[in-house]
Amino acid sequence: MFGSFRRSMAWLHTWSGLVVSWLLYFIFLTGTLGYFDVEIDRWMKPELPYQGELVPYPQAIAAAQALLDREAPSARQWTLTLPETRNPYLHVEWQGAGGAGEADFDLAGNRVDTRSTGGGQWLYELHFRLHYLPIELAYWIVCIVSMVMLVALVSGVVVHRRIFVEFFTFRPGKGRRSWLDLHNLLSVSALPFHLMITYSGLLFLQSTYMPIPFAAEYGDERPAYEAFSDEFFGPSHIEPTGVQAPAVDLALILDHAARRLGEDHAIRLVTVYHPNDAASVTRLIRMIGPSVARSDRLYYATSTGEPLDAPLTDGFAKDVRMALVNLHEGLFAGAFLRWLYFVSGLVGTAMIATGLVIWAQKRGERKRRSPGQIRAHTLVERLNWGVILGLPVAIGVYFWANRLLPAGLDGRASWEQDIFFATLAIAAAYAAVRRPETSIRHLLAAIAALFGTLPFVCEALGGYGLASAVRSGDGTMLGFNLVLLAAATIAAVCLLRFRGPAPIGAAVGAET
Amino acid sequence: MASARPSPANVLLRVLIGGVAGYFYASLAAVFVASVVSGARADRVIAGVVLAFLVHTAVIVAAFAARSLGKLAAVLTVSAAAMLVVVRLTGSGLA
Q: Complex ipTM, two decimals?
């Protein structure tokens, strides 16, 4: 297009990255927080008592089943998230015509009344479900953005052909040149992660983005993806018979599964489809073990407790797909690898943010621009900062809202979520009307204040603060509070070192 | 020497070829792969879809790298027709 492949790719890299960059930044940051969704969930439910060890929990299962039988006997689905080292509580949810609900239990089987909150799960789900949008539309938007990201990454590899040199190059204090070095460094250092996370993200939403192959193979037997899903993952689309048949004790099914698998605590998720119906099926999903290409599922008839034979598809493509999506989710990761995921995600987020800054600086250096172009550029540059810094502010306010909103407030979780988006909108609007050097300072100060004070004041606002984490030896909550303090420190250091926008023309050298 | 900056119409055309035509081309490629590889039905579909994302990326890159959009369109059309013939011969649902 520009006479040379590399120049064409440079153009494609710049524009493909730019047009979806705000949403990409949002997706990357919220997705990155998702690697600690369970820990954030815990922090946002301070009513849950600290439990240091994972002990047998049959009473908890029995108590949960009794609650589900009482509250939602004819639900479409019960879901039990079993205790594990990261989250030693039993969490149950139900969905059906009578509505949805959830409850938490400690390992002794006592129900714990927790505040209603979106928690870390909501933050994590934001990166693919977005918010305020129909789910299918959100999936489509995320798919298109992911595809554009993949194109930006591939074209970026072509543009930055001196990858090894760029990995070791950073020249601070040189305006746009420094931002470019930083962008290259961030891009190259976690390039395999960026490629994996983007490509596997597309595979997650394969049926939304590529429905034609499913329809071509499965025709219109029934919704094509349902037919595929039952073949690929095992039966989950169960037709109820209407004949009542009480469920057996779920603990018995779990016992049987433990004997089949030869280990305790091997199951992470139990789903009961149409409980108390004669056709009811219980699906157990195993913890991801030594192979990331596997995600074992066991099936039982809920009314008899008999194991079911689910003829699942086996094959190379399935293994590739499962390996990639498991790599994306990182559920198999231990503490070290989980932190590596988190840092890589932050690197990706920073890569997108630095790309935005570079684009704005490059456009700002253009001499021949109409007044309209100058106004538009100014607005985009300001909004860039509104999004880059406004999102962490919104996350901080979301955490604060979790502690400050009354526990009994109707629709409390929705209030938290609305406050999150209202904060983001206010931050963006504030950045749009103020000069960047002012809005950047104020937003950085807001981040430092929001995150820096929370570990100390939340003791009085429900618990799980820094002091109680130290006292109880709760390493997870200690880590969470230290991350809050680290975020505040980074914002404070940026604030102290910030000397206003880079001088125009400070950049030299290669363009992207 | 650098070429002139492309016109908006040229860019739009490349977006349409890469984004929209490339999308249908990639979907067809997925159906084609699913129809020629062996194995269980669900596994074949997944094999096609896994490759289709790469095909779509490649078509987008080609659309913005190609000097002649006519030649690119011709290559895509001929290869799509060839894939359709194979899909039809193998009796996939699409055919």
A: 0.92
To the nearest whole Å, the CA of B41 is away from the closest chain A CA by: 8
Question: Is the CB of B9 inside 8 Å of chain A's CB atoms?
Answer: no
B/e letters for A439-478, b = 16+ CB within 10 Å, e = fewer, are bbbbbbebbbebbbebbeebeeebbbbbebbeeeebebbb
pTM of the model: 0.90
Q: Are A162 and A319 in contact (CB under 8 A)?
A: no
Identity of the residue in A9, A217, A231 whose CB atom sits nearest the CB atom of B92: A217
- Measured CA to CA, the distance from residue A276 to residue B63 in angstroms comes to 56
Place of tokens 């890569």: A351
CA distance B28 to chain A (A): 7
Q: Please, what is the Cα angle at A426 between A373 and A490, to 5 degrees?
A: 95
Residue B56 · residue A147 · CB < 8 Å: yes
Q: Which H or E run includes A94?
A: strand A90-95
Rounded to an integer, what distance in angstroms lies between the CA atom of residue A95 and that of residue A113? Answer: 19
Asked if the C-beta of B27 comes within 8 angstroms of chain A's C-beta atoms, the answer is: yes
Whether residue B67 lies within 8 A of chain A, CB to CB, comes out as yes
Record: contact B3-A206, CB cut-off 8 A = no
Dihedral sign for Cα atoms in the order A128, A133, A134, A138: negative
Cβ–Cβ pairs < 8 A, chains A and B: 124
Chunked in runs of 10, what are the mean pLDDT values of chain A (512 residues)? 82 87 96 95 90 79 92 91 88 85 88 92 95 94 95 89 72 77 85 94 91 84 75 78 89 89 82 91 80 74 86 77 90 90 95 90 73 85 94 97 92 96 97 93 97 91 86 90 96 86 44 38
State how far the alpha carbon of A229 is from the alpha carbons of A154, A223, A236, A306, A313, in Å.
31, 10, 8, 23, 10
Whole-Å CA distances, A123 to A105, A208, A384:
22, 22, 21
Provide the residue ranges of all domains of chain A, joining segments of one domain with +.
5-43+131-191+332-506, 54-114+235-311
Both structure tokens of A140: 């489509």
> Among candidates A348, A424, A418, A416, which has minimal Cα distance to A385?
A424
Neighbours of A88 (CB within 10 A): 21
Picking from A154, A213, A314, the nearest residue to B34 by CB comes out as A213
Residue A230 neighbours by CB distance under 10 Å: 17
Strand A101-105 to strand A297-301: parallel, antiparallel, or no bridges (unpaired)?
unpaired
**Distance from C-alpha of A421 to C-alpha of A131, rounded to nearest angstrom:** 9
Determine the Cα–Cα distance for residues B32 and B85; give it in Å rounded to an integer: 9
Q: Are A375 and A204 in contact (CB under 8 A)?
A: no
